[in-house]
Amino acid sequence: MKKNLPVVFSTDDNYVTPLCVTLQSILLTKKADVSFDFYVLNEGLLQENKNTLLKFAQNGCTVNFIDMSAFMKGTTFPDVTYYSIAAFYRFFIPVIFSNYEKVLYLDCDLIARRCISEIFDIDVSGYIFGAVYDRGLNFHGIDDINSGVLIFNVAEYNKNDTCNKLVEYANTHDNLPQVDQNCFNAICKDKLLHIDCKYNFQNILCFDNDKCVSRLKKELKAQKVGKLKNVVIVHYAYLKAWTFPKLPLSRLWWKTVKTLPKDLQQRHKEFALIQQEKSKENEFKAWQYRSAVSRFFYKVRVKISLTFKKIFKKR
User: Fold this and answer.
1) How many domains does the chain have?
2) Residue 10 to residue 93: CA distance in whole angstroms
3) Percent helix, strand, coil in the chain (nearest 5)?
4) Residue 6: which H helix or E strand, with range?
5) What is the rounded average pLDDT for all residues in the chain?
6) CA within 20 to 30 Å of 11's CA: 52, 81, 101, 111, which one?
7) Tens digit of pLDDT for each residue in 209-256?
């Protein structure tokens, strides 16, 4: 009998709604002879949210919950107000699932376009894990990986005491703009396998609606994916599909939303509206900041100009 493949997520109550969409996409694209054991790492997830996620235990797949309280006890991770502390849960995955050979970790803001079981076929022998470059950082000449899709070599990870090294790094470094991702890149750089971009195709280039279709085609070519149908996972790592619904890649997300039961569709609609309002607030704050900076430099220029005029008048 074929064993179910382990797929792990980490979340809090705030991200249960997008996780439903991710799970739905995996179920819709999985092959008939493939099943998954879904594990949700959490601390104190509401029972109603657990019940919602349990609805995706179907077609031979299971949904399981792992309480991370014991693992997080004694750690002093830095305060990352713009991210959830759940980001650090993934450090412990190979330790928790030491009975597996490979374990797949996925973020909650992505969708499967093809059966994700093929990721388990990647040979990670001699490596701690396999991951894709972070396209956003890559544009700035930084060759870091994106931690949204990780295929762990469990034995190698544990043999190298990677978990303790990552925890220590996080506990002793305050400047972690990409949170767990900074730790993975610092500690595992020489022992990670760079895998094909089709397993974590990020939406970094789709910024404006008018040009994003042509940019998307260029990006598919640049990442050597070819066509969008070849992509296994689309990852909304930068522009979230629920906040920017009109972008081409976002439409794939919303297409999946429409396959959910009516109550979950409504829940997602409400979630998206809240996130869009927050986005508008952030844009307004950014505008206020830019305006304040502009006014400041304008006043500085005027003051400098007046000072020079006074100096030359005296002469």
Assistant:
1) 2
2) 10
3) 50, 15, 35
4) strand 5-10
5) 82
6) 101
7) 445 555 556 666 665 666 678 899 999 987 899 998 888 789 999 999
In angstroms, what CA-CA distances link 71 with 85, 113, 143, 161? 12, 33, 30, 15
Please give the torsion angle defined by the CA atoms of residues 61, 233, 183 and 195, in that order, rounded to the nearest 10 degrees: 110
Q: How confident is the model at residue 182 (pLDDT cuts 50, 70, 90)?
A: confident
C-alpha radius of gyration, the chain, whole number: 22
| Residue recorded with tokens 């996972």 | 233
For 250, the token pair is 């976002």
| Shared domain check, 277 and 242 | no
Report d(CA 167, CA 88) in Å as an integer.
8
Domain that holds residue 305: 264-315
Do 43 and 69 meet the contact criterion of CB atoms below 8 Å apart? yes
* 240, 299: one domain: no
Q: What are phi and psi of 63, to 5 degrees?
A: -125, 125
The DSSP H or E segment spanning 276 is helix 262-314
Whether the Cβ atoms of residue 59 and residue 38 lie closer than 8 Å to each other: no
Whole-angstrom distance, CA of residue 246 vs CA of residue 266:
18
Q: Cα–Cα distance between 56 and 45 in angstroms, integer?
A: 16
What pLDDT digit, counting tens, does each position of 44-95 carry? 999 999 999 999 999 999 999 999 988 888 776 666 655 677 888 999 999 9
C-alpha distances in Å from residue 299, one per residue of 183, 296, 302, 309, 313: 42, 5, 5, 15, 21
Q: What is the pLDDT of residue 74?
A: 72
Same structural domain, 24 and 172: yes
Q: Is the domain of 270 the same as that of 220? A: no
Element (H, E) at 37: strand 36-42
Whose tokens are 């002093």? That residue is 76
Which residues touch 184 (CB under 8 Å, ≥6 apart)? Answer: 131, 145, 147, 150, 166, 192
